Amino acid sequence: MLIKRTEREARRGMLAASLASQSGGGFDRRTFLRRSGLAAGALAAIGTLPLGGVRKAEAGPPAPPGARVTTTKAVCTHCSVGCTVVAEVANGVWIGQEPGWDSPLNRGSHCAKGAAVRELVHGDRRLRYPIKMVNGQWTRVSWDQAINEIGDKLVAIRQKSGPDAVHWLGSAKFSNEGAYLNRKFAAFWGTNNVDHQARICHSTTVTGVANTWGYGAQTNSYNDIRNAKTIIFMGSNAAEAHPVSLQHVLSGKELNRANMIVFDPRMTRTAAHATEYVRFRSGTDIPVVWGMLWHIFQNKWEDEQFIKQRVFGMDDVRKEVAKWTPDEVERVSGVPGEQLKRVAEMFAKQKPSTFIWCMGATQHTVSTANVRAFCNLILATGNVGGVGLGANIFRGHCNVQGATDLGLDIVTLPLYYGLVEGAWRHWCRVWEVDYNWMQARFVSKPMMEAPGIPSTRWFDAATLPKDQVAQQDNLKAMVVFGHGGNTITRMPKAAEGIEKLELLVVADPHPTTWAALSERKNDTYLLPICTQFECSGSRTASNRSLQWYERVVAPIFESKTDYEVFYLLAKKLGLAEQMFKNIKVENNVPVAEDLLREINRGGFSTGYCGQSPERLKAHMRNQDKFDLVSLRAPKDAPEVGGDYYGLPWPCWGTPAIRHPGTHQLYNTNLHVKDGGGTFRARFGLEYQGKTLLAEGSYSKDSELKDGYPEFTYGVLKKLGWDKDLADAERATIERIGGPNPDAVGWAIDLSGGIQRVCLEHGVIHYGNGKARANAWNLPDPIPTHREPIYTPRPDLVAKYPTYPDVKAQFRVPNIGFSVQKAAVDKGVAKEFPLILTSGRLVEYEGGGEETRSNKWLAELQQDAFIEINPADAAARNIQDGAWVLVSGPEMANGKVCRVKALVTERVGKGVSWMPFHFAGWFQNVDQRGKYPPGTDPIVLGESVNTITTYGFDPATGMQEPKATLCQIRAA
Amino acid sequence: MARMKFLCDADRCIECNACVTACKNEHEVPWGINRRRVVTLNDGKPGERSISMACMHCTDAPCQAVCPTNAFYTTADGVVLHSKDICIGCGYCFYACPFGAPQYPRVGNFGSRGKMDKCTFCAGGPEADNTVAEYAQYGTNRLAEGKLPLCAEMCSTKSLLAGDGDIIAAIYKERVTKRGYGSGAWGWKTAYRETIAT
Amino acid sequence: MATLSARIGAAVGAILFAVFLTFATPASAQQPTSVNPTASSVQEDKLLQELRRLQGRITIPDQRASVLIQPAGQDWRQFHQVTLHWIGGVAILGMLLLLVVFYAVRGMIKISRGRSGRTITRFSGLERFMHWMTAGTFVVLAISGLNITFGKNLLLPLIGPEAFTAFSQWGKYAHNYLSFAFTIGLVFIFFMWIKDNIPSAADMQWLREGGGIVGNRHPPARRFNAGQKIVYWVVVIGGVALAISGYLLMFPFYGTTISGMQTAQVVHGIFGVLLIAAMLAHIYIGTIGMEGAFEAMSTGDVDLNWAEEHHKLWVDEERKGMPAGGRPATARG
After folding, report:
1. Which of B37, B56, B66, B106 to mutate to test the interface with C (most CBs of C within 10 A)?
2. What span, in angstroms and rounded, lies between the C-alpha atoms of B171 and B7?
3. How far is CA A739 from the centre of its chain?
4. Residue A870 preceded by cis peptide, ω within 30
5. d(CA A961, CA A838)
6. How many angstroms separate the CA atoms of A743 and A725, rounded?
7. Which helix (H) or strand (E) holds A546?
């Protein structure tokens, strides 16, 4: 041995010592050098021999001599946890990444994706310049030419087919400002055909949850799960989809010795850490939850006082639940009654209990009802509106929450105002444009107020006969910003749809599936957009916290920010002046801070009004001040005293009143000025003679000791609180109200005065209502089990059929009932006997173009695969790791997908599972050559959505990729 | 004197592979070289556990013992490092290593082994600290900057611990006591000839 | 052989592990009434008691990375650092000592009747070429092989790390590339001389008489006597074992696992040192040990008297095969 441990000369000791003398060299290196007879110079020379080094020194550390290394705080652009990324930059090159220790959300941690984000701005496989397709050939064009040609084509389509012929598909990877800009742009263009990934993510959650208690978002936070005693995951594989959230979950589980119960058809990495794993059949969430409630009601484990005070219509739920005896639940879902009883008892009695769900629950034809069933379980056990409990809905993309909030959606303007005239008038006031001018941008007032075409149905709207599409014409153009094509079901149909389009614009750092899937030859434009690391803005994490992130490096190659491209398009279309009235534009780039200020000015409905850019930036500067569990900064902390981290919405009133944000929604144990609240009274005062206002429940120190309705100027007057309004506030309200100022509500009061005064009186302006166990306006007011369209149990369809057909739902027909009936009649379940369900891999995200182009991630998952149970594999003579051919009931005859078999007991017998991130192979054809040269992702593979089938949730247009059928055979 | 060790708390590890890409990111490790990896035992069955594994920087390291050219050295912090200028790529350390840590870039026509590469505990190699020469061969030297290995620092669930063996053992012990279960300090018996009594 | 039994143990362990995996959960695990994954988690100490090697699933295609812990590496280290040093040391130094003692006692075995001046062709050009190709490469392989095992103790202190690494690096290349020449030679040797190396009854007598090494009697032999046949089979068997184990090591993970390569290295090491020891004896007897022997492989022609002394039956056969009165051998000089 060259170095003997006893010969240590430099006893330099621990890290502290090495910190003290950073340049001290290290650890016996000199001894080693001396003894090995090598001089440092010689070593350096030898080091360049080809057999040696890891790589040639390029951009990576150490920094080039003389370069100043600066540190920038950004936020990870993958999932919704919102991990802080600390970037080290030298000479404009991102050279290193350090843990962001101060962030209470991730405390330095990352997952595989977060630890590899630096690669995104190296951009080996990024689009470098605008490209258009000319007779099947990719051709480089200038930005000017691209914007001009796209603008001209849009105008031509508008003239011929109307504004609704263009779909503006946006992205959950936008900043809040980008999402807002996209929504605003669609409004100015004159269509509600504007959507993003939330459609296929948590649209059902938003609808279901908002219809239950007011707001469609995670009620608590990742951090708050540390307080839970019982944690249920249903259809959530957070270990792979939200890895850093597991830090909070597992810490909480350990410290509280909490119950962690995972319901999933698949024994996931999350389930591996559970204290109880419940396997059930895909698509039977409602029977399982009703099965739990059956035991709860049977044994009187429910929280009667909570139900009495704060819940409407629980008796209607009892009636439905009574049908779900343990035997029936086991017959339908496969879960034994004993297990459900044990789990139900834990959830009801070992409180606080939290219920977590994700795509496993939300991507079904019945998902709005699924979500409502979960809410009912939570309400029945009194597990919402406090610490350590609630509906912890883990959102997907890094800003899917924010993009949803900002109305990148077919059913609403920003911040859930909806599409009614009042909503349009509110936003027109914020934008300072004339309502009539705005209306003229649309085909008609009804179309202005009609929900648009969901992202799941755009190709149906492009390919169906014109008379089946409830708008002026078919879809003729897709403008796609940052949205994969392979995450949407029925890809063979999408390929047809793409070919039908007269114009396809893909604005993205990568070409995406859109560019490669079809046989298009012309009128296709690829615009290089930079990643969020190349621009600044704010994003909303799943827990509703907003985080401001700084630009790490300038946009690489010729790429531009979303902001700039929207501005250029607006300018080309002659809309720029109106759209950017109150927003500063520097070198064609709208200033993000100004965009956020405009959001603040109009965002009263959802409490997006208090998070000014200045406050958000102060939070990023003072991350270390916030408590890990409560997320709150001490009152005396400079700049951020008393705030919750990221001012989780709702953050009421103007920034000036310094509302701290709301960590736990509907928490009556806190004063409303400390983030307290009640269930929102948004459904009226009573229904069928029963009150919808809370009874005897109110937030801490409320001056109104009972339920109360939403506040308007008129209500303020009745209470005599209007005298607390400042003159300017009163003037604003009266200006808005015109002849009827009393009707001006808290959400459209642009002064924020109503909110301010209410908070001063300890009440919440949105009212103190009951949560609805019965949501009478939804397709199933009480959640009702309905079999998946392609069910492995056709015997159950007669008793539990899907929803009836509808001629026009979101402007297109929904013929799920007919499809289900045909499938049962044809015996599809015999030909395709395996359940096919899909999900996430930790290494990839969404459509995966970005992550599959990242060499550090791509190495970890090199092949698309399908999980199959050993018994099913043995019956088909399939070996682990071998190629297999997968076919689905809607694929054309003879078409198959070629993937690798992963033989595992993760899936039960009769079940198969595929990740959805792959694309670039389509029905056994390698499409690598169809990407513009140099932009093809490193890893290509078959998408599960080539196999997935018809089925749409009637309330949201959600697709059904989680429960369909397939057949697998050895290749 | 600190004795640097790794400890993977398998009851926290969720196979998120952050450690793997953090390592790749920090040292720009090329495709095919896996200084760190995550292995899942009993995959898909109750009892499944994932464990992140790299060079454990063994006490009386087998690689060091069997190396025909004495390319290895142990630093004062107990980190087992090697010189790529001395290594001849014979593969013996790979046979001896209980953890599959040594990696060999494929060079030449027969895919024969190049110079061995492995986890350095983010402590670089024999060249002067944080020089281009050191970085090119071994990656960054975080230890010399007073930082711990990035894999552990970025671990999503704080499963992977790196640092003074006594401290991380105490952390693990406290966790097991608190939560009432622990599947073991994976690799400690083999690498350090000790276990953490709980 | 402790390590080899450990290998077998590992194989059995792997099978047991597979069985364990199969039966860890009943086939009807679809709907177990109670599954607590936390409580039923695998335990390292328990697994290590049951198995020789912990292997799982990994996402990267490199399946060798799926081995988590293989304590067998420690056994291999023990073999390489201790056992092999002893075997090699005893075999090689022992053989050298034996030869020195033998030479001191016996000296060079002379041709008892002196040289006849007439020679007989013993080995053709091809035979000699193949012999020397095999022999030459073997010497390089042996030196570079010994260097890998003993070099750091013997050579490194003398020449220093830089030179030693350079030497070892070239040694590694030489070892890898010359192995092909050695293997080709080996194949030729096997086929060229197999017919003359089938053991026969005469060999028993030759062996019983100790090959005439002690004393002055020369038991009759055909083309190869029993001693030479032993050398032949040692070379063939040892060489084949070295070649196979060597190629397994040279092409890592082609058809082997890590434990397979450890076994291959054990085989390679043991056969290597033993063959070196055997070849020392062969070299001795072919050079300073016996007068007239070396010519067989240098010119190919041996003195007739030498041939009659050592290979009487062969000379007789050669004569029989010749035309009557024909030249029994080429007379030279």
Report:
1. B66
2. 10
3. 41
4. no
5. 6
6. 16
7. strand A546-549
Burial of A500 (0-12, 13-18, 19+ CB in 10 A): middle
Mutate to test the interface with B, among C17, C20, C31, C42 (most CBs of B within 10 A): C42
Question: Alpha carbon of C61 to those of A239, A916, C152: distances in Å?
Answer: 22, 20, 36
Instruction: Residue count of chain B, please give it.
Output: 198
pLDDT, tens digit, for every residue of C103-152? 998 888 888 888 888 888 888 889 899 999 999 999 999 999 999 999 98
B-chain residues near C40 (CB < 8 A): 46-47
Alpha carbons A513 and A510: distance in angstroms, whole number: 9
Give the Cα separation of C330 and C117 in Å (integer).
10
Distance of CA A760 to the CA centre of its chain: 34
**What six digits make up the tokens of C141?**
């392989």
Domains of chain C (ranges; CATH) run 120-327 (1.20.950.20)
Task: Give the Cα separation of A897 and A883 in Å (integer).
Answer: 10
Render B58-112 in DSSP notation, one character per residue.
-TT-HHHHH-TT--EEE-TTS-EEE-TTT-----HHHHH-TT---B--EETTTTE
Task: Provide φ and ψ at A241, rounded to 5°.
Answer: -90, -30
Return d(Cα A640, Cα A614) in angstroms, integer. Answer: 11
C-alpha distances in Å from residue A134, one per residue of A137, A139, A140, A504, A510? 5, 7, 10, 13, 19
Q: What 8-state DSSP symbol labels residue C37?
A: T
Q: A699 Cβ partners below 8 Å, 6+ apart?
A: A667, A668, A669, A670, A671, A672, A676, A677, A678, A762, A763, A764, A768
ipTM of predicted complex: 0.95
| Residue B112, both tokens | 């024969």
Listed as ranges, residues in chain A with pLDDT below 70 are 1-65
What distance in Å separates residue A927's CA from the closest CA in chain B?
A: 23
Amino acid at residue number A588: N
- Coil, strand or helix: which one is A938? coil
Q: Which residues of B touch A112 (CB under 8 A)?
A: 16-18, 20-21
What lies within 8 Å, CB to CB, of A369 at 6+ separation is: A208, A286, A778, A779, A780, A783, A784, A786
A175, A399 Cβ separation under 8 angstroms:
yes
Of B18, B30, B164, which is closest to A111 when you measure between CB atoms? B18
8 Å CB contact of B100 and C65: yes
Residues of C in contact with A862 (CB under 8 A): 60-61
pLDDT of residue C161: 87
Q: Which residue has the higher pLDDT, B129 or A436?
A: A436
Instruction: Show pLDDT as tens, one digit a residue, over chain C (333 residues).
Output: 444 445 544 444 444 444 444 333 333 334 555 789 998 899 988 898 888 889 999 999 888 889 999 888 888 999 989 999 999 999 999 999 999 998 998 888 888 888 888 888 888 889 899 999 999 999 999 999 999 999 988 998 899 888 999 999 899 889 988 999 999 999 999 998 888 888 888 788 888 877 766 666 677 777 888 888 888 999 999 999 999 999 988 887 777 888 888 899 999 999 999 999 999 999 998 888 888 788 888 888 888 888 888 888 888 887 776 544 444 444 443
Residue A68 per-residue DSSP state:
P
Instruction: Write the CA distances from A384 to A275, A381, A666, A700, C261, integer angstroms.
Output: 23, 9, 7, 16, 60
Dihedrals φ, ψ of A578, to 5°?
-65, -45
* pTM of the complete model beyond 0.80: yes
* Cβ–Cβ below 8 Å for C251 and B111: yes
CA angle A930, A485, A579 (to 5 degrees): 110
Q: How large a percentage of chain C has pLDDT more than 70?
A: 84
What is the rounded CA–CA span in Å between residue A112 and residue A848?
Answer: 14
Running DSSP on this structure, what letter comes out for residue A604?
Answer: G
